[in-house]
Give the backbone structure.
Amino acid sequence: MALETLAVVSERAPGEPGGLSVAAERIAKQAAASGARVHLVSWSKLAAPGARSVAEHAGVTLHHVGRLPDRTDALQALTDHLSDVIADHSVRLVHAINAVYAGYAGVVAASLAGIPAIVSARGNDLDRGLFRSDQLPFVSHALTRANMVTGVSRALCAQASRLFGREAHFVPNSVDATAFRPETTDNSLRASLGLGQDLCLGFVGELREKKGMRFLLPAFAELARTRPVRLLLIGGVRSECRAALDEFRRSMPAAAERLVELPYDRSPARLSRLLALCDLVVFPSLYEGMPNALLETMAAARPALATDVGGHRDLIVHGETGALLSTRDLDRLPEAIGEMLDLGEAERAALGSRARAHVIAEHAPASEQSAYATLYRRALEPELEQGGASTRGLSTA
């Protein structure tokens, strides 16, 4: 059964920082490219608090809902607008990106309209939502009442199955390897950033606690005492973590002088050029879904050292497509980084080449698009998914 009209609901609007906005926009565009009319409903900074605005972008109708200060009011406004979109545009299916507020709004609005809902767990929704009393009820409702559940990593699928009695479909994130690609080193860019001829470590994403900030900065400081190395932070720092970075600069001035901080930039061409400057990209996350930043790094053929959490394990085969470090061994991060740098340029380049080949083969946008298209068809076929949550998923990780 072909999908005519789809509503995608997200907690972040396209263009805002973070993986949720990137994933929601990508999934919406993929559905539109398959021929569906797609409405993407999200909290957004582009609308005043409590207000709504509509725009067209790349074949997708964007519905911006200004987030209100009170969480209950904000969630009700998001759900109400989603319900209006469902009614006004004869939406047949809702796809919620994230299992907390988007998942709750998606399931409630779809249930009231008598149409199916798919909820996609992304990472933080389970990694953190399970331990937050203000989020767990929303997560539980979304994952137990959705017609289908998906997860971007095998670990997330296993969590959803074991904790909520759901079988979950593993649909990993994808990356456009024509947009994120290997580049030759731009020496003028290197000079403009003050990197000199030193080795360059990279970190991609918004630096914060879950991304391993408290391990990355001391590890870099330790390495900088004995090696000619610099750290390129690509993606800025979460506002609540700014004080911690400022304290690092005060307490470790020598290392701080060798740290370059760059703001969030969504340009694939710009990011590919920056990644080409990095001898090694480090992802010391404490927990993860399947980060776009790691996929983009691998597509750019850069070697990566990552913790063995979540989707990192789905992407990296240790010694083949990168290197993994147990979170129990994060005290060894300086040593692990040093070992990777000691491999030499040719060996690191080989890791990067194999990483790119892996994401091209296993994480192409067409594969993600096909996987969701199959789930959409199944969700719309009553003989396969009768009774909503009473029929658990059709496949599992």
Observations:
- The chain has two domains: 5-174+364-390, 187-362.
- DSSP finds 16 helices and 14 strands in the chain.
- The domain at 187-362 is CATH 3.40.50.2000 (Rossmann fold).
- Residues 71-88 form the longest helix (18 residues).
